[in-house]
Amino acid sequence: MIEQEELTLPYSEIFPYAARPEITYEGEKYTLGEQYTISHTPDYRNCLLVFMVLENGRFLSAKNPKTRQAWYFYDTQTLESVDSTVGVDKAFFAEVKKQLPTLASLLKQRHANLRLVYENYCKREGLHFPAPKAPVSSISYSPVLDIEPLASLIAPKVGRNDPCPCGSGKKYKKCCMN
Length: 178
Prior knowledge:
Elements: E1 8-10, H1 11-14, E2 22-25, E3 28-37, E4 46-55, E5 58-59, E6 68-73, E7 78-81, H2 90-99, H3 103-124
């Protein structure tokens, strides 16, 4: 359904504890909530950036008039308005580029992380998922944000006679394998 409907997936829904980049613009704090389109092809073209105002440690609704949204294109590092009737706030996004100089690498890494989760889901469910053409490099954004590539967080394959990873003490073949 994710692919058929071409849905965008918020990174924070899959990785709720991942740090969110923040910027300050005209005396107000904004936090980034980005969304990605996931598919079988490893061709990452763009993602949706949503900057929401932070007030008292909480971000305001995405429908708040101060919220800034734009499609971000990786190859050209350009922005395109989500709403064709309203242009991109160029001054705001110039400040984003200034305060978050490695944003492009963070977005690409997060897109790759989501695709890896999706790929593993497809493998578990027996769905066809073509191998990526080239391995995705692990570029970290900063010491605080996404410091380990997702591949290192995935558990190794469990053998039939190994102890079950659920912690029951039984062999995997007698516990969760079935």
